[in-house]
Amino acid sequence: MRVSHRSMYANFLAQMNQSTTDLMDIHNKVASEKEINAPSDDPLGTSRILGYRDSLAGLNQYLENMDTATGWLKLADDTLMKTSELIIRAKEITEQASTGTLTAANRKSLAFAMRQMFQEMVSVANTSFGGQGIFAGLRVEGNAYETGLMVSDNQGGLEPYVESITGTSSSSVKVQFLESGTTGTDNIAYRYTRDGGESWSEGTLTSGDKQLDLGGGAVVSLRDGYTITGSSVDNTNTEIGTWLTVAPTAMYTGSTSDQAAVTITGGGAQDFQADTQGSFEQDVTIEIVSDNRGAVPPAVTYRYACDGITFPAPPATFTAKTADTDGFVMELPEGEVRLHGSGNASGLSLHVRAGTMPVLQMGCDVNALAHGDLDRPVMVRIDNTPNAFGGADTIEYSYSLDGGSSWVTGKEAENTLTPECLIPGGRLSLGAKGANNGIKAGDQFLIQPKQADIAVDISADNRLTINNVGAEIFGGSLEHGTGHYHSQEEDGSNLLVTMGRIIAALENNDLSGLGQGLQALNVAQSRVMSHAADVGARENRLTVSKKILTGLELSQKERMSKLEDADLAEVMTDLNRHEIIYKAVLTSSSRIMRMSLLDYI
After folding, report:
1. For residues 65 and 220, what is the distance between their CA atoms, to the nearest angstrom?
2. Considering the entire predicted model, what is its pTM?
3. Looking at the domain 85-255+468-541, which fold is it?
């Protein structure tokens, strides 16, 4: 076989290029310390490495979320411990003031210390992490609490008749009514003291003016219908006659998870919509007694009963807080109900359903409310047109957990007077609303979970709440101090209101009020420590989850390293071997190419 010089040169070049390529591949591995530097090096290995990288990116995000959660929860834990310490100090002051040997002047001195402690408690409740309030629910911008005034009477029936409390006062105010009568109807003389009874100022509540001007800019506005019992100026017993006390409080401005659904029944119900604001812990039934929004001045009167209790006889009626051509607001002990509509609302019945969730309707307007514990929004779609409610046929529906991108179909519910559509974590209840007594195909309902929690993902299917609702821990008042959170629970459930009442008791030398305040502080401390235990449990859960994720991250990195990272000892051995091969190729090629027949002539 004849071998030409051309074929030899081509063979030499191919071998040198192959050796050079092998040497450069090893060089790249040494330089990058990676076994795979391009997808062509190992397509299958590259795919697995990309999968590991994607998994690690998710784990890193979960770990970052955990770091954020740790900051929020650690601060909440420390803050609640400080709150407990403040309560202990408040109890010490209250116990000291309850001693019978102290004088009124001594108690006023202690009132100053208690006011400073109250301000410190409000400051603690406004604690923020990174500029976001940790006790404000979802409304993290700004303070969770704003200081203000509250008013109470000695008979416990004032709240529905208070329209507003405006202004400020550096001291509590005690009001004594000197004449009997009804607000809005009679002229009623009163007097008030801002210094614990050392001096008094007098005024008259006229039938056309329902404002109590208490000096220093503090004004209490009452509504019509409040029955007052007068007593003489010689009377110092607050159990005789009607007395009012104005004390400091803090209004909660954050969000709560207690918003409740409202159903409307009666003639013309289909022309109205209602929503709630506040913290409803019991069902409330409201009856619109009269709707005179067309009169001058416009007025709407209503009455209410809580937890199924029948209306009192004769019924006590109240005037809506505001009234205009479109809607009005009705104040209740635990919040308010806003009714919107252009028809006449007389005779309507509204039912606030505590523990339920409002439902946004699209395509229909019936009574709809949701029950259960949802962790995400749920959409419900009606897939057929059944008979009117109670038609005894079947309602076909679907639900979506991803905003309508995909639907779980083939669901059915019996068409009773109040049909219920089952969904993950709860159910959707429907019912007639006036003339609107049915649904049709295509109607949709959006159920939002109770929005107060800020939660972060700490794993693929695990979320952790990092914030708290201040109203559940510190209590506080509703707007204008006309109602309080947890008003139906045990005395002391509302810490800030309790401290405000103790301040008033100290400034007015009220031993009975101090005794009640001391018992209430024990309840308040128990409530705070219960929430502190909840925060601690979430911290422990976070610690365990972080340990698991850290171990998983290490395992993923080790697996990826076995595929991606080069063994330097092995690579250096390969480098030396390929250098020898490359040198041998060059040497042998040069020797062969130098050989010629002329060398032997």
Report:
1. 47
2. 0.71
3. f41 fragment of flagellin, N-terminal domain (1.20.1330)
